[in-house]
Write a structure and sequence with these properties.
Blueprint (H helix, E strand, L loop, with lengths): L2 H8 L2 H4 L3 H4 L9 H30 L3 H37 L3 H28 L1 H9 L4 H15 L2 H16 L4 H24 L3 H24 L22 H33 L3 H14 L4 H19 L3 H33 L7 H35 L2 H26 L4 H25 L10
Helix pairs in contact: 4-10, 4-13, 4-14, 5-6, 5-8, 5-9, 5-12, 5-13, 5-14, 6-9, 7-8, 8-11, 9-11, 10-11, 12-17, 13-16, 14-15, 14-16, 15-16, 16-18, 17-18
Length: about 475
């Protein structure tokens, strides 16, 4: 056990609290300005691409009408649920690898990376089989009340996109591993290429062959196969490895390591349960929204797409927190872990304020690009303006800050807080406000804001308490 860990365990609870002196870090830290900038900027660009391409995807599908866009948006709720579980598991692997890199143990980081890739691939193949076999039953169970043309679009879109789950597992695993090394440039380039292919495929299949939702699904599948293939080759390439990086060796030889798998799951399982339950809750809420009619479904879909602009800094820098804090903890330097958390959260609020202001002012103009009814447009304007106002304050504390806690190994507590808040506030209050107080679609969004405030408050208290300093993932 490192001496720094012994020191932490002997420290009193009072001394574990975050102190003002911990916030300041100099240029001699693990992540000086140039290295931090090199990590953060590609992540911001990647998240910007994710949102803008997602919006372009929705705009292109909307040409086929509200039934197509509604069907795609409903299935995307399921896809996001499944992808969030993959991402949560890969976060566990990224934390373990980042901590080994902080300890300057490349061999162990590489072995842990292989455990993650094999584990995630096997899980995704199993989930794909389940979704292909029970396609109609799953959709009917969740969205049985939707109109027939909406369900028809949903079924074909779900079947085709389910084929891409193994490629998502491979891509997300490799991308998380590259980020754990502090190399986010590679993921940016590959992600950009994937989305060019996706947009081009949409143009061919939706506009050229009038395939509607099916066209969007095929374009997505092709782009994910290509992206996963490229990033897998790079993570195994000897020629790519630079200073402070590792590669996966002998990929086809699994070399299962129970200790490392346990460490990955120690972070990945609570994180996966948290992400999975979060998306299950969103599915339940989405089912509630289907009872408000097609206009409400479409308004919710386009609002979610545009609101993604507001959280670009938080999503990007939240990923950076996993790498930065993970490596600091691996090096046994909790003062730097604290300082970098405050520094990165400051960036999130600064840049998040800009993107939220942009959404508030320009959002109504961007809505004009979507092929939605006047009723759906009015709903969307009201939603995005309130969202932009509240997201600037509460979103970072709810979704970015907990990444710092997870990077230390404090994943169980974030899971408990998140799941409790999700079921009591986001789900419970959605039904309360919508069914009993007749708020309609707005009630779902109001409940979400209440959830943000509750969970964000607890994460702040948890971080300031310093209890995360007693956690560890690797031995």
């Amino acid at each position: 056990m490192p001496a720094s860990m012994d020191k932490v365990k002997e420290t009193s609870k009072k001394d574990l609290r975050v102190r003002l002196s911990d916030i300041k870090i100099g240029e001699n830290g693990l992540f000086p300005k140039e290295r931090l900038r090199g990590l953060i900027l590609p992540l911001i660009l990647e998240q910007t691409l994710a949102v803008t391409i997602g919006m372009a995807d929705t705009v292109m599908v909307s040409v086929a009408g509200e039934a197509a866009i509604s069907g795609v948006s409903l299935v995307d709720q399921i896809n996001i649920l499944i992808i969030s579980v993959f991402s949560a598991l890969t976060t566990g692997g990224a934390v373990v690898s980042a901590q080994y890199m902080g300890r300057d143990d490349k061999k162990s980081a590489s072995l842990a990376a292989k455990q993650l890739l094999w584990l995630c691939t096997l899980i995704t193949v199993f989930i794909t089989a389940v979704c292909l076999i029970f396609n109609n039953r799953i959709l009917d169970f969740i969205y049985g009340a939707v109109e027939k043309d909406v369900m028809s679009s949903a079924e074909i879109y779900f079947y085709i996109t389910a084929l891409s789950y193994p490629t998502i597992g491979i891509y997300n695993s490799c991308a998380a591993l590259f980020r754990s090394m502090g190399n986010s440039k590679i993921t940016l380039v590959i992600y950009f290429l994937m989305n060019l292919i996706n947009i081009g495929g949409n143009a061919i299949f939706i506009y050229g062959f009038s395939m509607g939702a099916a066209g969007a699904a095929w374009a997505t599948l092709i782009s994910r196969i290509i992206g996963a293939s490229i990033i897998l080759i790079l993570i195994c390439s000897q020629r790519r490895v630079g200073e402070g990086e590792f590669r996966i060796e002998r990929l086809l030889s699994p070399e299962p390591n129970p200790g490392m798998i346990k460490s990955i799951l120690a972070v990945g399982l609570p994180n996966g349960a948290e992400g999975g339950m979060f998306q299950v809750g969103k599915l339940l809420v989405a089912n509630l929204i289907t009872s408000f009619g097609t206009a409400a479904i479409a308004a919710n879909a386009v609002s979610n797409t545009l609101c993604g602009f507001a959280i670009i800094p938080g999503a990007a820098l939240g990923l950076a927190l996993v790498t930065v804090v993970g490596q600091c903890v691996g090096a046994g330097d909790y003062r730097q872990a604290t300082g970098y958390t405050f520094k990165i959260m400051g960036y999130i609020y600064l840049f998040g304020g800009i993107t939220n202001l942009f959404l508030f002012l320009v959002g109504p103009v961007l809505l004009r690009f979507f092929n939605i009814s006047a009723e759906a447009y009015e709903m969307s304007v009201e939603i995005i303006r309130l969202y932009a106002t509240l997201a600037a304050v509460f979103w970072p504390l709810s979704f970015s800050l907990p990444n710092a806690l997870r990077a230390t190994g404090d994943a169980r507590m974030t899971m408990i807080i998140s799941i409790f808040s999700m079921w009591i506030f986001r789900i419970g209050f959605s039904y309360l406000l919508c069914v009993f107080f007749d708020f309609g679609l707005n009630g779902v969004w109001y409940a979400m804001y209440i959830d943000w405030i509750f969970r964000g408050s607890f994460f702040v208290l948890r971080f300031l308490s310093g209890r995360w300093k007693t956690k560890r993932v690797i031995k």
